[in-house]
Every structure is written in C-alpha cells, then in structure tokens.
C-alpha cells in the first residue's frame, strides 16, 4: 500500500549527526590544552555517571525547575571533571564554558552516511520536514553549522517543547506545527522507545535506523517489522514510496 505521507520528522543525534569522538576524548583533549592531565576513559565514565544523575534529578535540562540548559550543561561538565579527580575552581569553570561552546562547532559532529543526500531527496519529493529531538537550544546552531538546517521547516527540541521523547506531546506539537494528521506523518530515529514506539503511539508511521556500530551487528528489536527498519538512511526513500 502506498503510504500517503506529507511530513517526515527526524531525530538528530545518531540519526543525522554523530559525535566525531567520544565525550571523554573531547573533554580530555580540551583539558590537556590547558595543562590538565585526565584519562579520557576515566572522564568518559565520570561523564556517563554525572549525566545520568543530572538527567534523573533535573529532566529535560532542568526546564520547569528554574535552570537554563546552559547552567545544566556547565554543571554536568564541571562535575564530570571533579569526579575524574580535577579540583574545582576558576580554571574548571572556564574549561566548562569552552566545552559548552565546542559542542556547537561543526568539528565536533559528523554526518551519518547518506544523511545530506537523503534529506535533499526527501525535500525534492515535496515532503514537509521537521526535527523532533531531545536536545537543548543549541541544536539550531549545530544544524546550521553542519549545513543541515535548510532542509527543515521547523526544529522542535525537547527544551523548547517542554517535554521530551517518548512523551507523545512533543510529536503532537510537531504535527500541529506542520498542520498534518498523524497518519500522514512518519518519524525517523535510532531509538526504539523514544523514536520508533513513541511516534507510533500518537498514530504516526515510524522508521528505525539500525546501523551497525563499530564491529557490532545492529540490534534490531524483534517487534519491528523489516519494512520499518533502515540499515542506512539511504534506504528510506524506497520505503516511503512503497
């Protein structure tokens, strides 16, 4: 059956863009440039722990709890270094500010294979296009600097929406922005629960990107029919044109 799609919504991190190197490596390199020695692996571990704790305590960048996403991130960066053994102080505050800026830089991100081409081709087919991403308000700048922003009619972040995937209200807001009913929309993302299931729960179609990682077979949840699976982004057009 031909899918009558008008709107495609897109996750960003690990769907269109991914970090060029792990957080621990980026943080350690910036610290080294300032004469601070920290092991990347240790920093990576510390970051995962601090990020998890901060996300539980202040969900969605502390929105609704009186924090700005910038304050939220600066705290995460500083606490990660402290946990990895760097004494807190003015040098660390400055380092945190620098890293917050670094993550807006195109040098921090790379496009996933097929991303630019697939977005261009979807645009040319006349789809309305939007971003639905659990991200802070830096996303507009990141997309612009990575030369992707022009593909999208709107960019909806969890910070702006006030709710994060898998909360269906962020998808409902995207549908409202596009003026499209859910059955004429499809979401593309890499996370089974936050992207695939959450979009389907509001009545949208959904495609799950399952690219093989470093020497790993992609993990495909058995509940997802093969025609909803994207081994690469380049597979999308054949599926939406069915």
Automatic annotation (TrEMBL):
GO terms for cellular component: nucleus. InterPro entries: HAD-like_hydrolase_domain (IPR051828), HAD-like_sf (IPR036412), HAD-SF_hydro_IA (IPR006439), HAD-SF_hydro_IA_REG-2-like (IPR011949), HAD-SF_hydro_IA_REG-2-like_cap (IPR044924), HAD_sf (IPR023214). Gene3D superfamilies: HAD superfamily/HAD-like, Haloacid dehalogenase-like hydrolase. Transmembrane segments: none annotated. Belongs to the HAD-like hydrolase superfamily. This is Haloacid dehalogenase-like hydrolase domain-containing protein 3. The lineage of its organism: Eukaryota, Metazoa, Chordata, Craniata, Vertebrata. The gene is Hdhd3.
């Amino acid at each position: 059956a031909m899918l009558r799609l008008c709107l495609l919504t897109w996750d960003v991190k690990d769907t269109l863009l991914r970090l060029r190197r792990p957080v621990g490596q980026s943080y350690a390199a910036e610290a080294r440039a300032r004469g601070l020695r920290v092991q990347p692996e240790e920093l990576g571990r510390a970051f995962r722990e601090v990020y998890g704790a901060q996300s539980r305590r202040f969900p969605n960048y502390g929105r609704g709890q009186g924090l700005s996403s910038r304050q939220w991130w600066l705290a995460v960066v500083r606490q990660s270094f402290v946990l990895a053994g760097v004494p807190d102080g003015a040098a660390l505050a400055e380092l945190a500010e620098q890293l917050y800026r670094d993550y807006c830089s195109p040098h921090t991100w790379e496009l996933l294979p097929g991303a630019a081409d697939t977005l261009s081709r979807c645009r040319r087919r006349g789809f309305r296009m939007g971003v639905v991403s659990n991200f802070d308000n830096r996303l507009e700048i990141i997309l612009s600097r990575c030369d992707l922003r022009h593909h999208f009619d709107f960019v909806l972040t969890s910070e702006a929406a006030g709710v994060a995937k898998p909360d269906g209200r962020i998808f409902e807001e995207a549908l409202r922005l596009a003026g499209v009913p859910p059955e004429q929309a499809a979401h593309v993302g890499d996370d089974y629960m936050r992207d695939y299931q959450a979009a389907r729960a509001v009545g949208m179609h959904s495609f799950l990107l399952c690219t093989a990682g470093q020497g790993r077979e992609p993990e495909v949840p058995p509940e997802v029919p093969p025609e909803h699976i994207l081994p690469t982004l380049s597979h999308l057009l054949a599926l939406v044109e069915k």
